[in-house]
């Protein structure tokens, strides 16, 4: 009896999967369903992104439906893969994703494309080699992180001189945007001739960056600046600088311009950050998804790059 039930259940499950794979996503008359898959919602940047997307959908409720979700922390790659799997089973029309890992999310993105779902990449660009290996192209909608980081670094460089020792706290090594921001910081520091004594990951997190910054400050007593790949890590660095009694002596810069750093920019605890407009970034991705859905272009042939704005934000002048 149990064996028969198990076989029957398996057959029913297989039939369901087959049905999902052959049915069109939606009738032409239905509003498209777009899923926004973000990284950690514990990071204010992604909460701002989500709020911006929801506001846009509310203003365009006649054009599309929106599903938003995110993972527990920046490194929860497995959790994000499961979210995409759920969206595939839910038969959404498009997925707009900020991948936690530039390589690990490529296979599940391919599964979405194979299921007839439009995939748009935002914030953190998929790895080009991984995409090529899977034989797919995915449009990237986002800023030039290296250029943005160099803008921040160049502004910091005005307060430094050749030979000054600095440290860089970068994001996850598996995230392309983290690599690009580190490259931008290195570009600017090379121009001024500073000595980069350490490059370590803070994994995008406040607490982890705090520990990394504290260690750098202890190991390099004459450290002049900390360049952080996002503002969450900059917050951790600012706390470490304060604990070391070096506020005003060690300059801190970040990236993202989340509201939590506004007081730090106002009083000089942070020197600068880069605003990549979190409230609009997902919206740019959604609008491009809607265009592609309307065009009915072959999904497997989609690709390209849409640059979004990024602006330097500096400390208030005293």
In total, how many beta strands?
12
Strand content: 15-25%
Q: Under the CATH scheme, which class of the largest domain? A: Alpha Beta
Strand order of the largest sheet: 2-1-3-4-5-11
The helix content, as a percent range, equals 40-55%
| Gyration radius, in Å | 22 Å
| H and E string | HEHEHEHEHEHEHEHEHEHEHEE
Q: Looking at CATH, which topology of the largest domain would you report?
A: Rossmann fold
- What is the arithmetic mean of pLDDT? 90
CATH architecture of the largest domain: 3-Layer(aba) Sandwich
CATH homologous superfamily label of the largest domain: Response regulator
- Which structural class matches the secondary elements? alpha/beta
Layout: helices, strands, pairs:
Blueprint: H1 2-22, E1 33-40, H2 44-59, E2 65-71, H3 77-89, E3 94-97, H4 106-114, E4 118-122, H5 128-134, E5 140-142, H6 145-157, E6 165-170, H7 176-192, E7 195-201, H8 206-219, E8 223-228, H9 231-243, E9 251-253, H10 262-267, E10 272-275, H11 278-295, E11 305-307, E12 311-314
Parallel strand pairs: 1-2, 1-3, 3-4, 4-5, 5-11, 6-7, 6-8, 8-9
Antiparallel strand pairs: 10-12
